[in-house]
């Protein structure tokens, strides 16, 4: 008998049958959204809320949503009507005795959740699964006072639940694997994309996303650029749907700052998660963002949204020389060619290999030497290389299609050389936003830190690499998973950016994840 004859794939977990009753406790936006998803999947859904009439009102709203979906041909009128009939407003927890799954979507308070589940244990059957929609509280802590904590797992939807594909299936220390697997399979049957996670602070998304806000706040604090410019760069160069400042304004600074503090405190004040004094000031002032009219931007009637800053138009240099075989250099060549701008490849590059220049430069023009940032400031790189006129460009989701690019110039660089570098990039079709000489600029340092945090989550067994990438693409609409992005940039380059930031600031905040270090040593990508 061969080894393969004795091995088999474990049976795939089975989702809850559509005939199983699903109860949702909490009829707010999240609870109503989860109820909408479950009823559309065929379950009888019992919705309960401590507020008088809240469950019935939520059901009316869900049925209206079903009718809108039918009007848009996204579900049939018959299916919309049937799903609406499967929604029931329960009078209280005592009506949930026949539930196979109870999803809790109440206030984010540990004692409130513990009290609810202790009450439910006396009502439901022993085989009923408890799924908490908490976004930040330890699943282990919620279950600690239960008689059977193994039945509890996180079932973390994202808002709005009917539209967002991601569901984090979070296992606490006592969670039975079969329970987590059943919830995973059930979320799939409901049309969602679930990912497994271990119950650690922030789970996957709320942990890995912290650098998206933190690095932008840091660059703002150091005078690198204004909010509108940094937002535009993250959108138009980084490919993110929203910039960090407009996103924080939309989330609400009271909420976003509280999550950051929660993660920071839970990790015993790890400097990687240190909250921003700028955001603390906004919270102290009551400037929460869109919800009350003022945040980083002013949303009051008559307020004018500031435009991102762009460099004034410069003449196109006539002595453009490109170097190396990097994606950035070849994207620059293609963009110049498409616009009929003359350039030459370095004579040091033979036509066969066009090997990368020894010092990493990608272009020269008018005395300026252009590099993609490696986490050093332009001034430091100029000093290290003995080149006065160093100009750095930022990373991009795709340099071939980006519409905007950030640049930083060494303090001692000549103004005409900086102008020539800007003119080259403008001739290639970029809107150029000049930042003060901040190490790592904005897209590169943010992506490197996102990848680093995702790598640490994987290294610590919170999730696997594919789960981390899927969570960030689907949970917060990142244009690319951070670990996939790190593989594309090149792990040695990401490691160098982080190491250079750590040396520049002298802070443990930028320490390199052991997972990245090990893969660099092995010469492998994260996803290999």
Give a description of the structure.
With 528 residues, the protein is of the alpha/beta class. It folds into 3 domains: 178 residues, Rossmann fold, CATH 3.40.50.720; 78 residues, N-(1-d-carboxylethyl)-l-norvaline Dehydrogenase, domain 2, CATH 1.10.1040.50; 114 residues, Transcription Regulator spoIIAA. The protein has 21 helices and 15 strands. It has an 8-stranded mixed sheet with strand order 3-2-1-4-5-6-7-8, sandwiched between helices. Helix 2 packs across helix 3, helix 3 packs antiparallel against helix 4 and helix 17 crosses helix 20. The longest helix is centred in the N-terminal third of the chain and has 18 residues. The protein is elongated and about 80 Å long. The N terminus is likely disordered.
Can I get a quick summary?
The protein is an alpha/beta fold.
Cα-based radius of gyration, to the nearest Å: 26 Å
Ends distance: 31 Å
Query: What class, by secondary structure content?
Result: alpha/beta
Unreliable runs, pLDDT <50, ≥5 residues?
Answer: 1-9, 351-357
Strand content: 5-15%
* Total tally of structural domains: 3
Q: Shape, please?
A: elongated
CATH class of the largest domain: Alpha Beta
Please name the defining characteristics of this protein:
528 residues; alpha/beta; N-(1-d-carboxylethyl)-l-norvaline Dehydrogenase, domain 2; Transcription Regulator spoIIAA; elongated; disordered N terminus
SSE layout:
Layout: H1 3-6, E1 22-25, H2 29-40, E2 45-48, H3 54-71, H4 77-85, E3 87-89, E4 101-104, H5 110-121, E5 129-132, H6 139-143, E6 152-157, E7 166-171, H7 177-189, E8 193-198, H8 205-208, H9 210-221, H10 227-236, H11 244-251, H12 253-266, H13 277-285, E9 321-322, H14 327-338, E10 344-345, E11 363-365, E12 368-372, H15 378-385, E13 390-393, E14 404-409, H16 415-427, E15 431-434, H17 443-459, H18 465-475, H19 482-489, H20 491-505, H21 514-522
Parallel strand pairs: 1-2, 1-4, 2-3, 4-5, 5-6, 7-8, 9-10, 12-13, 14-15
Antiparallel strand pairs: 6-7, 9-11, 11-12, 13-14
